[in-house]
Design brief:
The structure holds two protein chains of two kinds.
Chain A: E1 35-44, E2 49-56, H1 59-64, E3 72-77, E4 81-86, E5 97-102, H2 106-113, E6 119-126, H3 132-135, E7 139-145, H4 149-161, E8 169-175, H5 187-192, E9 196-202, H6 217-221, E10 230-235, H7 238-250, E11 258-261, E12 277-278, E13 281-282, E14 289-291, H8 292-296
Chain B: E1 2-7, H1 8-21, E2 23-32, E3 38-45, E4 70-79, E5 82-86, E6 94-99, H2 101-116, H3 122-129, E7 131-136, E8 160-164, E9 168-173, H4 176-182, E10 187-188, H5 192-208, H6 218-224, H7 229-237, H8 243-247, E11 254-260, E12 266-273, H9 294-313, H10 323-327, H11 334-344
Parallel strand pairs in B: 2-6, 6-7, 7-8
Antiparallel strand pairs in B: 1-9, 1-10, 2-3, 4-5, 4-12, 8-9, 11-12
Helix pairs in contact in B: 6-9, 7-9
Classes of the chains: A alpha/beta, B alpha+beta.
Chain lengths: 302, 346
């Protein structure tokens, strides 16, 4: 007989035997467990980025998996590790999720070598999201620079699928050069939607480029902004969203109506490892989506 | 709180009863420093004699028994084109004897992060609930400042907490399993004499605190002094070795990596405790580092402990044990750094 008492087995806790649900932040769960998912499609976007279609294999888990635009998942490549990746697909698509992934480190390089049919793991969704509900009835500016189009694409899907809920919808996108433009096969489809304005600008044109050349703030010159009626989502590198948000601030858009998505190298996604910690703020649980007011008060964020 | 009196003989019996069927972790003398001072570490013991309850301090805290330096989170077993994930938790009961009040309070702080905040950790919960904690009162070392951090008194988070009254222990009982265990040895009820002796010991404990830091308004001060020269001064000394986080009883930051077996049949996902002072702590994909300077990293360690944790949980993360100050090769200690910040503001 054990003097202390019988061993406590955490696996027997009622919450632990329920189906895994990362949307329930407060519940006890096997936090390292992944949803097994199959890569059903790989789409080449540029030399550095590929779009992966992933389908959670278990039928019940797949049905229960839901996310909001701006949230991310940790993608697990067994043997290589995990990386945090924003979800790029439409929230209304229950069958699979799409992740736009740049070849940058160990995990993403392994993914780029992976072929259709390979099995990876997913934990999530994690983090905050773009408050699309709150934006209802207003004009929205969806602005992306470079890889920022990856998280923004989920919001673009929301806006285009629910076009009637918004006033003006502007999609503004800037990239270094035409070769780095992501999702170029979709621009025409977005433009054709009644009353969606889409503008693209590049820093360095090549011979084939006929569009505008310059930085993304130039595209804002052509947009009429009613500061009382406008929400903005700005995704891109800090230097980009800083200039865009300042420009919008000058136009009178309140700072708590502009949303940005921050990037950090998270190791857990759950506010534990502290790798994305800035003071008391965790990019993984308090973010990655922040309003601009919160971001300028976050030291080191920009 | 329930109090009892335990004579020293029955205390020995109690330890031996636990040892019969459980592992006990306790301070053990493992060597002697050049200065002649003994070196102690929390290690498994095989007999009552191996335990040294008169220890001054341990270089390492007992954190590793709750939040191991390295812990396997799961394994992936490879099979042709597929894999299976396996997860296991440590569930064997064991006891830790000899923790100081500040070390128990360190666990109470970790409990807040790892058992009650968002995404509670089953790994930690499993180890915590399976550990029987026996704490001991001690006269503080000169450089300890746990009184300033309000961690010199324990109110919960342990099973038994003993105060040495010379020939007997004054025992605080904080769990039913501790109560049941005490009933297996000879215990007495507390008399007025015992209480008076206990109060006398507590008075000596309070008198023992020689190092104090000013924590009033500290979170606000840290914001005001974000660009202070104080960070440069101490940052220049810092070797970015991460020793402070390793010995700290509350530092819980970690990194996750995967290790593949030599025969490629499986991979293990390992969580390894990390330190915010290490160069690549805030590096992201593509190579950008949000904290390339050592003074910035040193500063953020203080920000997390005294500013960030305060905002999140209403108390600082630091417990004032000064293990980090003692282990630091560059002579950086929290009392000096924080007092420097206050002097900037005179």
């Amino acid at each position: 007989m054990c003097a202390l008492r019988h061993a406590y087995d955490v696996r027997q806790e009622s919450e632990m035997v329920q189906r895994l649900d990362f949307n329930n932040k407060l519940g006890l769960k096997p936090v390292a467990e992944v949803f097994k998912a199959e890569i059903t499609n790989v789409i080449r976007l540029t030399q550095m980025e590929k779009l992966f279609h992933l389908r959670i294999i278990d039928d019940k888990d797949r049905e229960r998996f839901s996310f909001l635009p701006g949230q991310f998942v940790m993608i697990e490549v067994p043997g290589y590790g995990e990386a945090p990746i924003s979800i790029s697909s439409s929230t209304s698509n229950k069958g699979f999720i799409e992740l736009c992934i740049r070849k940058a480190g160990t995990v993403t390089n392994a993914l780029h070598r992976a072929r259709r049919g390979a099995k990876v793991g997913i934990r999530g969704p994690f983090g905050t999201y773009f408050p699309m509900q709150r934006m209802k009835g207003h004009s929205i500016l969806l602005i992306a620079g470079g890889l920022g189009l990856a998280p923004l694409r989920a919001a673009i899907y929301y806006a285009t699928e629910n076009r009637s809920e918004f006033k003006d919808v502007h999609i503004l996108y800037g990239a270094k050069n035409p070769g780095q433009l992501l999702f170029d096969y979709q621009y025409e489809a977005w433009r054709r939607i009644d009353d969606v304005n889409m503008e693209i600008i590049v820093d360095e044109a090549d011979d084939s480029w006929t569009g505008p050349v310059g930085v993304i703030t130039q595209l804002l010159e052509g947009v009429e902004i009613d500061p009382n009626e406008t929400y903005a989502i700005v995704c891109g590198p800090p230097v980009m969203f800083k200039f865009v948000c300042r420009r919008l601030s000058k136009a009178g858009v309140p700072m708590d109506r502009m949303f940005v998505s921050l990037e950090r190298r998270m190791h857990c996604g759950m506010g534990k490892c502290c790798r994305c910690n800035v003071g008391s703020t965790f990019t993984c649980t308090d973010g990655p989506v922040f309003d601009y007011w919160s971001v300028i008060n976050l030291k080191e964020a920009i | 709180m329930l109090f009892k009196i335990l004579d020293k003989g029955p205390f020995r019996s109690l330890v031996e009863i636990i040892l019969e069927s459980n592992e006990i972790i306790a301070p053990k003398k493992i060597g002697t420093k050049a200065t002649g001072e003994p070196i102690h570490q929390f290690l498994p013991i095989n007999s009552f004699e191996e335990m040294d309850l008169d220890y001054r301090t341990t270089e390492y805290s007992a954190k590793t028994y709750f939040l191991p330096y390295r812990e396997n989170l799961c394994t992936f077993d490879f099979d042709a084109e597929d894999w299976e994930q396996e997860i296991s938790y440590r569930i064997q009961p064991r006891a830790i004897v000899g923790l100081r009040a500040h070390d128990i309070n360190a666990l109470v702080k970790l409990d807040k992060v790892l058992t009650r905040d968002r995404f509670p950790s089953p790994y930690y919960i499993s180890r915590r609930k399976n550990t029987f904690v026996v704490g001991f009162e001690h006269i503080p070392l000169e450089d300890e400042f746990s009184q300033s951090m309000a961690t010199d008194i324990v109110t919960h988070g342990f099973d038994l907490f003993l105060t040495d009254l010379g020939d007997r222990y004054f025992v605080a009982v904080d769990s039913d399993r501790a109560f049941n265990l005490l009933n297996r040895v000879e215990v007495r009820e507390v008399t007025d004499d015992d209480t008076n002796d206990y109060k006398e010991v507590r008075r000596r404990v309070l008198e023992g605190f020689k190092t104090h830091i000013n924590v009033a308004n500290l979170p606000n001060l840290l914001d005001l002094e974000f660009t202070s020269e104080v960070w440069k001064k101490w940052g220049e000394k810092c070797l970015s070795c991460g020793s402070c986080a390793m010995v700290c009883p509350t530092c819980y930051c970690y990194g996750v990596q995967e290790e593949v077996a030599m025969d490629f049949t499986k991979a293990t996902k390992v969580r390894q405790l990390y330190s915010c002072n290490l160069l690549d702590f805030a590096e992201v994909a593509g190579g950008h580092n949000f904290r390339p300077d050592k003074e910035t990293r040193l500063k953020y360690r203080y920000y997390h402990q005294h500013r960030g944790f305060m905002e999140g949980f209403g108390e600082p993360l630091c417990v004032g044990c000064n293990r980090c100050g003692r282990v630091c090769l560059a002579g950086i200690n929290p009392a000096a750094v924080i007092n420097d910040l206050y002097e900037e503001n005179l």
